[in-house]
Amino acid sequence: MKLDDGHVYILNDVDDITGKSDYYKIGMVSKERTVEDRIQRDHQVGNPRLIVDIHSFHSEAPFLVERHLHKHFAGFRVRREWFRLTD
After folding, report:
1. Tens digit of pLDDT for each residue in 23-45?
2. N or C: lower Cβ tally within 10 Å for the chain?
3. Is the distance from CB of 85 to CB of 22 less than 8 angstroms?
4. Angle at 6 between CA 75 and CA 77, to 5 degrees
């Protein structure tokens, strides 16, 4: 089990026409990478929608926090780390 420092993030993919989306990605990065680096290298490339960091925070155990959030929102899971969350 990983207990290294890092960040947990919540991303949103913004539709260019409507300016909004109900799809959110809950993920984490280790201390060696930044959330912005993760977005640009892994999520934005080849994606026609703009990926926006809605909220990110430091954690001493990001893997555990991410896993907890995934379990909490499991009923809203669309695919892997993507969830459909509405108001």
Report:
1. 999 999 988 888 888 888 888 78
2. C
3. yes
4. 10
